[in-house]
């Protein structure tokens, strides 16, 4: 910043301070005579009193969340505590209606704030039970304008009713219902959110569907009840913090496998169109066993339930690590074993790397995909013998000209967050770190990372700092070579 810009900023800051002081004085006087609540603040053009008693002018919340790759994702000015979603979907008419209550805490005095919300139309909107107005671009940004500004530090509720025909990429129509999933974004197609992993929240989800269909979502099942209208409501509760893209719903006809295995609860669903007892069902039913193995590598399983869903959706090219209940397309299981449980190991590894510890920036996707792919190597070593070292050596032999080396997994670019290099070179990077710091420190590092970061987010820089602390080694060269160059790194230790 130039010296003259510096001076201008100083002048502006002083001017704001004068206004704030003046508003504070007026607000102070009005506080004595004025009505309780925020009524006086509106009259003053949006000043409100913060928890410290300082008067700060209410300002719009940031319509973006500060992501370096996806600046439109997420919003500023508040922090969601929980989502209570009541959804109703009719496969016959393809209409989705929702009643969402979002409970959030204002992190600044807010004159207005944004949700990420797509194309469904809003029929009612209230903030703290008072009618609010809104501006909606019908793509991703919904601006909520409360009747009175929100005081910094206060918890508030937003109630929103909406309806429409979902048309986005995350909303998949199936023969019997719908499957809603997607990364890095999917929430905007079915509920209003602060759509960035750094604002995680608890979820209570109710899905009402015609009787005869099952609706599956994240977390612990709360059973179902049949309403007088012949529709059935399924309840789901995800009390551990969850990133918005990890919420899902699967509506259809499923075979359900439920129980407890070695102390870990599970709920697994397989689309009825898939053969009973077939490879997909066999593989996904091994989820508790795979989770138990991964717990020996990464530390305790981070949630109170596990499971998975095999859907009949030919167009789905990926599985996704939805929290507590990944979704798998049947195509992943056609090869039989070991590929079948390998994908289960991948998605369940994400429960630690991605779900419990989420990316603080989408740029740092290596923390998800590198480790989930590495977990496949660990599982395959345990399940059928090929060692992680052999996998590394085999993959490392890939010529420098091959696609797997580029882009750099630590900063692949917004268009390439799911490039093969993020997965394959990403897994090699994890193993290169293991070779450099040794097995004992490596597994201690994984366990310490997942326990200290549990329920929050992490960055590669923080992971590197922890690795350096625990190993006592300076690892900058290794991280640079493996994560940030476009070239094939030297073999570790050479
Ligand atoms: Zn993955």
TrEMBL record:
Limits of the Peptidase M1 membrane alanine aminopeptidase domain: 341-482
Stretches assigned to the Aminopeptidase N-like N-terminal domain: 81-246
GO MF: alanyl aminopeptidase activity; metallopeptidase activity; zinc ion binding
Keyword Zinc: yes
InterPro entries (UniProt xref): Aminopeptidase_N-like_N, Aminopeptidase_N-like_N_sf, Peptidase_M1, Peptidase_M1_aminopeptidases, Peptidase_M1_dom, Peptidase_M4/M1_CTD_sf
Organism field: Virgisporangium aliadipatigenens
Protein family (similarity comment): Belongs to the peptidase M1 family.
Listed cofactors: Zn(2+)
Keywords: Hydrolase, Metal-binding, Metalloprotease, Protease, Zinc
Signal peptide: none
Lineage of origin: Bacteria, Bacillati, Actinomycetota, Actinomycetes, Micromonosporales
GO annotation terms (biological process): proteolysis
Protein name stated in the entry: Aminopeptidase N
